[in-house]
């Protein structure tokens, strides 16, 4: 499961890098995924659902940098919370013995 999540995250970074590299960061500079060689399946749809990629009309999308940054911050916080919970569980387990 962890490997699949890592692959999806890597692909998300690749898609974001493609839009950023093409300068598609505003509605005016929006590009179609096909122009950038991006498949519209799972990873692309995840980014659209999370408002990281915004629809500019005519099948063109652009990268919303603040949304991308916010998504990354949320993910980091979740990882930190999970690590704190894991550490607390281990500590409780050690103290219980």
Structure, explained:
By secondary structure, the chain is mainly alpha-helical. It has one domain. Helix content is 62%, strand content 9%. It contains 3 helices and 2 strands, in the order H-H-E-E-H. The chain has helices at 2-21, 42-49, 65-96; strands at residues 53-57, 60-63. A two-stranded antiparallel ribbon has the order 1-2. Strand 1 (53-57) and strand 2 form a beta hairpin. Helix 1 (2-21) crosses helix 2 (42-49). The longest helix has 32 residues, at 65-96.
Explain briefly what this protein structure is.
With 97 residues, the chain is mainly alpha-helical.
Q: How far apart lie the N and C ends?
A: 31 Å
Q: Classify the helix fraction into a percent range.
A: 55-70%
Strand order of the largest sheet: 1-2
Unreliable spans:
none
Biggest sheet, in brief?
Answer: 2 strands, antiparallel
List the helices and strands and how they pair.
Elements: H1 2-21, H2 42-49, E1 53-57, E2 60-63, H3 65-96
Antiparallel strand pairs: 1-2
Helix pairs in contact: 1-2
List keywords for this structure.
mainly alpha, 9% strand, 62% helix, two-stranded antiparallel sheet, 97 residues
């Amino acid at each position: 499961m962890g490997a699949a999540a890592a692959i999806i995250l890597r692909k998300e970074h690749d898609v974001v890098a493609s839009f950023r590299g093409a300068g598609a960061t505003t509605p005016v500079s929006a590009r179609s995924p096909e122009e950038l060689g991006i498949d519209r399946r799972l990873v692309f749809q995840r980014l659209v659902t999370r408002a990281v990629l915004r629809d500019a009309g005519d099948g063109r999308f652009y990268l919303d940098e603040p949304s991308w940054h916010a998504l990354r911050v949320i993910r980091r916080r979740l990882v930190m919370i999970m690590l704190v919970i894991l550490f607390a569980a281990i500590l409780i387990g050690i103290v219980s013995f």
